[in-house]
Structure prediction request, 617 residues.
Amino acid sequence: MKLSTPDEVLRKVFGFPTFREPQEEIIECVMKGQDGLVVMPTGSGKSLCYQIPSMLRPGTGVVVSPLIALMDDQVVALRQLGVRAAALHSGLDGEESRAVWRDLHGKQLDLLYVAPERLLARGFLDQLEEVGVNLFAIDEAHCVSMWGHDFRPEYLGLAVLAERFPGIPRLALTATADPPTRREIVKKLRLNGARSFLTSFDRPNIRYRVYPKQSPHQQLLRLLRRDHLGESGIVYRFSRKKVEATASMLEKEGFRALPYHAGLSSDVRRRAQRSFVTDEIEIIVATVAFGMGIDKPDVRFVFHLDPPKSIESYYQETGRAGRDGLPATAVMLYGLQDIALLGQLLRSNDSSDERRRIEHLKLTSLLGFCETTRCRRRVLLDYFGETNGSAGSAGSAGSAGSAGSEGCGNCDTCLEPVESWDGTREAQMALSAVYRTGERFGQGHVIDVLLGKDTSKISSWNHDRLSTFGVGRDLDRRTWQSVIRQLVAAGILIVDMDGYGGLRLGADAKKVLRGETQIDFRRDPRPATKPSKKKGIVALEAPEDRELFEALRALRLELAREQGVPPYVVFSDRTLIEMAAAKPRDETEFEALHGVGAAKLERYAEVFLAKVASYTE
Ligand code: ADP
Ligand code: ZN
Prediction:
């Protein structure tokens, strides 16, 4: 097939009708031979920006990528589209590598994926010079930055490309937004003249929810059964032990789930990741060790059963949901113990004062996010420096985010606005109960004192004689827990993690006791029990359509297993949803579906049309 314009490639190869902002502009820049820096969130469609030019320009496009699994997935997906792509990495045997080189020299490849260490190995660049490179795409470009979270020293060597291939456009891509990392990429990769493309970091299809932690397993099961049966998702936990416990609980409850953490052998981890990507299992329960190198587009939920360490980690981990643009959920649970634990980690951290100060700020921001009464998306975007839905300052192609100052309509605080209440008096009661019991008891006992309970601990300490005994009977235990949690989150109370979790007064407690500050609390939401209204997958209202959708999914899985590829590279959920709704009768109607290009039309139209026909008769 002879293709001549980016637009044509988009429609005929990828089967997409239009470009997203600012893909077309980036492609144009590369087509003209200019360098570029692309900073766009996960799922925004960065890969098309180098894939299309490398298919149109004479020669082969070289994509530098840090992980083998990621390269393989991209190559498999491209081949399904009929694109001539290959990867060179240490996972190939001699014969396989030779075949790739043969194709390269025979000008049979549009795209070549390589790891940086391979690219910089002796003689490799000479060989590439002979072959003819039409562009370099440096994926996950933040790996060059020591400031960021994934520093890979091999990436530093990529600077050499600027001298060795002066006329060849280089495109650096990342989903890491912060300005210092951005500046480091430009400097270390010598991209001084490059145009930068920066979009909003909003992920409008992700619905953010944060709940106080009561019983995490029950809360998880309830949410899974209510909203996500049969869907793919990631559950994050703080420790390996908790990962194991949650995974086996889910297994017992009939979910297909596997654990993933750094304590497992790399083989076991690889298999877990593979099973997840190929839909053999639905849920992966993981520590933060999991995620980099996961391109699975149809992750429908990310649950943090324990809070992450910072807003950056939260954004990155939740960002693995909904890459395909369909509705996805991010739920976080957090409780007093978690806040105390994070605070403790911070205090025991023996790094420099400056580092500790930064970590402290990060923790405070995270807690602020948890306890906010504002739109969560707004708080996230503000944190990343996007005010009023605009994308930072340094960008030529900033597009507006969808969360204006009035809120996004797709987070818990927008959907079920939280009330706040003046709790100055209640805060004083709690603080004085802590103070009068000697700043050594945990929350359970302090609340018993407030509620005026008749326990043996109370009587043995004579706490029923305190003036605060029973002063808090107007509120229930759950509300007092909420009060104490919020006081701890604000640093007004401190949990002593070295001993028995005793509470003591923090810096501002005196001011509160003296009545010098007003305290507003957030009223904790009661967990909803009705299924939440979702767009997208559930948009198939008619039961017959849903049934057809399930049948199409089963067919997709079968075809994927036959070929040993992930189901989503056969067709995306979005394509199957459209198929179930539109019920195409012939190839022309089939070709009109989102994500159906020439290669997939030829390969799959017949079987899928037959399946649709068998349901519509
Ligand atoms: P990123 O690399 O930025 O995380 P991807 O390149 O993996 O994102 O793209 C995310 C998803 O969006 C993929 O499923 C891709 O096929 C889809 N996509 C990209 N561009 C378009 C487009 N113009 N129209 C429709 N879907 C698109
Ligand atoms: Zn909102």
